[in-house]
What does this fold into?
Amino acid sequence: MEISSEDLELCASILEDEITVVQSVYPESSRVNQEGLTGESPSDVSIVLEIPVDLGETREVKIIDDGTIAASSAAVSPGTSATNEEGNTVTQSSQNNITTTKTATNPDPHSTISHAQDTQQTATLQLSSLPPIIVSLQLPPAYPLHAPPEILSLHSTHAWLSPSLVSCLRAKVFSLWDECRASGEGVLWRLVQYVRNGDFIPELSLLDDTAGAASTDTTITTAVPLRIPHAAPQLLAPRLQAYDAHLASSLFDLKTFTCAICLSPHKGSACIALSCAHVFCKDCLREFWGTCIAEGEVERVMCPDEECVKGGRKAREEEVRSVVLDERVVERWKWIRQKIELEKDPTTVHCPMEWCQAPVRRPRAVKEEEEESQWDRLRTCQSCQYSFCVLCKRTWHGPLTVCPPSVTMPFVLEYMSAGADSPKRREIERRLGKNNIERLVARYQEEELNKKWIDQSTMACPGCEVKVEKSLGECQSVCPFRAAGERLRPGSPVDR
Ligand SMILES: [Zn+2]
Ligand SMILES: [Zn+2]
Ligand SMILES: [Zn+2]
Ligand SMILES: [Zn+2]
Ligand SMILES: [Zn+2]
It folds into this structure.
C-alpha cells in the first residue's frame, strides 16, 4: 500500500504529540531517541517505556509455584528410570516429552497451603505496587496510522511475569495499538495507562478467582487478591517485597538526591537506587556504563561507589536495562559478559530460565578419557534448581531421549566445519562434553550416509512412489500398481 507524504506527516505529528504528553505527565517513565522525528527524512523513532504497576492500595498477592522447577527435578531424581523404561523412553519423540513435562507441571490452582506436596510453594505478600514493565518500542514512520509499533523487547523487572505471560502482554500491546488507531491516536499513552493502572492484570488472569465470580469482571477490584504464577516463589517474594517497601517508604521519586558522580542534586525520578542502596543520577550512570560497554570493559559495569567496586558487586540485568535504555547496548553487555564467563571456565553455560541466567558449571571434572554417560548432558542450576539438558537447553529429558535435531544441528555443523584439534572444537567439547558432541556428530554422519544410500540404491516404485531397492523394482507392500498385476522388470521405463 502506498502511503502519501501527507499521511506520513500526519503520523509524525500524532507521534510527536503523544510523546510530549507521556513525557510531561510521566517524565520518569519514558526515554526517547528522537532522531527520527527531527531528522531530514522520516525514519524510525525508538522509545523505551519503564512503567511501574500501581495496585491502588495494599492488596494480597499470592505467588504460586508454576511447577517448572519441580518438573525438571522430578525428571532427574529417579535414577532407575534410565534403564527401566528403556523401551518407552527411546521411542518417545522429544516433542512428546515436552508435552508430558508441561502437563506434569500443572499446579493445583486451589492449593493455598505453603509447602504442599512435592516442592510446590506459595508465598503470600501484602503489596501496593509491582516492579516496572520495561517496553522497548521501535516506531516506523508510518506509525501509528499505517504501521504497528515494533516491540524490540518486553521485560518485567525481576522477571515477575513468566515468559508465557510476557508473550500474552506483547499480544495485548498490538491489539491496543489497533484500537487506538481506529480513533486516529497513537498507543503510547494508552499503553502507559494500561500497565500503570494494572488494567492488564485481569486480562492476563492474574486475579485469584477462586470465588469464580471475577472471570467476567474486567476491572481490578480491591477485594480480589492477585495470583502470580512463577517458577521460584521463594526467590521472587523477597524481591517484590523489597521493591514495594522501597517505593512506599521513601517516595523515592519525590526526594532529592546528590549524585556522587556529578555532585549535583537530582529528583529521585531522574535517579536510580541500585540494589546496594547507592543512588546515582541515571544520566551519569548511563554515560559511565555506556562507555564501559562500548569499550568492552563490562567488568566495570557495576556500582561506582568505592566500597562496591572493592566488593566487585556487578550490576544486575534490570539495573543495566533501566539505566542504559538501548536494547543494542544491553545485548552487547550480555554478550561480552557471557564471553568473559566462558573464558574463565569453559564449561560454563547460563541457566536457560530467563529470570535466572546464573552461570552453571559442569558438575564434576570428567577426565577426557573417562567414559562419559548420557547423564553428562544434565545440568542443574545452583541458584534456582532448574534441571536442563546442556545440549538443547530444554527441561531435562532423561538420558535416553535425543535432543530435537533442529536445536542441535547448528552446533554440530559448527563443530564439523572447525578443523580437527582446532581451538573452536576444544571450546565446544569443554562446554558441551566431548562424548556428547561426538555422539551427535556420529548420529549426523550416519543419517547423511543413510540418505546417500537411499538416493543411490533405491528408486521410487512406479506404482505408489514408495522408495524401494532398485533390484526389487517395486515395493513389497500392497500397492495399486502391484495389485493390477503389472510386474515391472528392474530398470524398464514406465509409461504412466
Ligand atoms: Zn550525576
Ligand atoms: Zn553501591
Ligand atoms: Zn537458574
Ligand atoms: Zn537435550
Ligand atoms: Zn508400490
User: Anything to note?
Assistant: The chain has four domains: 5-67+120-227, 251-341, 349-448, 461-496.
